């Protein structure tokens, strides 16, 4: 199982939001590159980076911060936030990003995601962000009428790397991962699932490790607040 420490960027700073609300941001670091090195030094080999401003704007607004984290980390970096066109995605892949995460485009323009997955197999991740079981888009600001599982199934034959499932209501809240919904999605689709949203402590890592269909876990605030020791989580996941 892969442990992805998270770097979320708002106006160039490393932050964590509460329930995806941009007005409820806690700043944890001013230097994304330095934060990426901290995670690398702890033993992380995969990193999750999100351009939060870009997720609302539909274009990269924290490109410098993403590139700083990419250069400093030295491992596999997946990037999301406002990536909605083929050109945007391919620019990040060409820059050395391991995988590109696409959410709004997956719902609104699925042909773009399918084309990218066909051209770059195993390098496109579909973000399946949920509010009350329905897909949330545009930086989680809008809730669609499409059930999470329905969106996931649309990409089973597309060649995407995995699904990134986030329970928006738990994200940044330290409430614990929505284990039931995460495992339910993994059982309903043939695609690997990355769990995100609400990781509280090692209990969440333990509950998900070894479960069918679970590829990894993204964690942010629990690390920054000292509730989860990244090195310990990495060692456990590697066992």
Can you describe this structure?
The structure is a single chain. The chain has 239 residues and is an alpha/beta fold. The protein has a single domain, classed as TIM Barrel (Alpha-Beta Barrel), CATH 3.20.20. The chain contains eleven helices and twelve strands. It has helices at residues 32-41, 52-57, 63-73, 86-94, 104-108, 110-119, 148-153, 179-188, 202-208, 221-224, 230-238; strands at residues 2-10, 13-18, 21-29, 46-51, 76-80, 99-102, 124-131, 134-137, 142-147, 162-167, 193-196, 214-219. It has an eight-stranded parallel barrel, surrounded by six helices. Helix 1 packs parallel to helix 3 (63-73). The model has no long low-confidence stretch (mean pLDDT 91).
Under CATH, the homologous superfamily reads Aldolase class I
Question: Rg, please?
Answer: 16 Å
Question: Low-confidence runs (pLDDT<50, min 5 residues)?
Answer: none
Q: For the record, what CATH class applies? A: Alpha Beta
Please give the largest β-sheet: 8 strands, parallel, barrel
Mean pLDDT over all positions: 91
Distance N to C terminus: 9 Å
Q: Name the overall outline.
A: globular
Number of domains: 1
What fraction, in percent, of the residue positions are helical? 25-40%
CATH architecture annotation: Alpha-Beta Barrel
**Secondary-structure content class:** alpha/beta
Q: Could you give the order of strands across the largest sheet?
A: 1-4-5-6-7-10-11-12
- CATH topology label: TIM Barrel
Short description:
The protein has about 240 residues and is an alpha/beta fold.
